[in-house]
């Protein structure tokens, strides 16, 4: 039984900001902390259990999306059976109650665990302008020379209950992991991920789909430098025909943030630039020059920060 954390009166739910905090408790499931407008973040309500059955299982890497004030979607890794799967929960009352688990990947839709010998991990998700929900993830079902390798797959749903069969995005024969998905105003899907096909190092790759995820074109490596080191945590954002991809790597000794920009929907990318510690890191001229960087986090203690994300104002 879920105990409501909401103040009495339905109007309070309508006054909430479109903002929530989602986190994972190991062996305890996924929890949502709704954030009320009152106090502007000074206080939070009690947490709500999102996933429908967490006993003896793990849930990790949640992604939260919203379609309007009341309609929330949480996509996450779920180790409920014997392998990692991608699951989803939906709330149509602003997080007050949640649906039972919805299977996103197509490895175990018949609920027969003997049919699933692979892991699905690292979910990323977007809504297209027509309302279709797209989810990308990595799956190690394919075997090359006796070894399971991860590859990037995409599924989609128009009714948010039934998902398509998966479509593979990358053509790598090595691991392809950590996808990040974005969608343009015309419905074009843009995807970046880490790929180990070259030299045993993870590099940043990109592809796009102009037919709703059925086929993927323009696959290419994005980073032109840092080929002797691994790249980490790529994130993607789009604005019109512009594609922005950021990631971190250690090509200069320490972890630094790099960004590559395309002005033709990913057909070509300009050489990446280091965003932090350049003489001019904020740019107002399409990345040709950058202003001095500013520290964003305000931690008083020397904690580490990594895996940046970004968005553009439309």
What does this structure look like?
By secondary structure, the protein is an all-beta fold. The chain has one domain: Neuraminidase (6 Propeller), CATH 2.120.10.10. About 0% of the residues lie in helices and about 40% in strands. It is built from 1 helix and 19 strands. It has one helix at about 10-15; strands at about 20-25, 30-35, 50, 60-65, 70-80, 85-90, 100-105, 120-125, 135-145, 145-155, 165-170, 175-185, 190-200, 200-210, 215-220, 230-240, 240-250, 255-260, 275. Strands 4-5-6-7 form a 4-stranded antiparallel β-sheet, with no helix packed on it. The protein has a 4-stranded antiparallel β-sheet with strand order 8-9-10-11, with no helix packed on it. Strand 1 (about 20-25) and strand 2 (about 30-35) form a beta hairpin. The protein is globular. The protein starts with 10 loop residues before the first helix and ends in a 40-residue tail after the last strand. The relative contact order is 0.08.
Radius of gyration, taken over Cα atoms and rounded to an integer in Å: 20 Å
Question: Quick one: biggest sheet?
Answer: 4 strands, antiparallel
Mean pLDDT score, rounded? 80
Number of distinct helices: 1
Helix/sheet category: mainly beta
Q: Which consecutive residue ranges, at least 5 long each, have pLDDT under 50?
A: 1-20, 23-28
Strand line-up in the sheet with most strands: 4-5-6-7
CATH topology: Neuraminidase
Listing every helix as H and every strand as E from the N terminus to the C terminus, the arrangement reads HEEEEEEEEEEEEEEEEEEE
Overall structural domain count = 1
The backbone outline, from C-alpha atoms, is globular
Second-tier CATH architecture = 6 Propeller
Helix amount, in percent? Answer: under 10%
Cα distance spanning the termini: 41 Å
Strand content: 35-45%
Please provide the count of β strands: 19
- The level 1 CATH classification is Mainly Beta
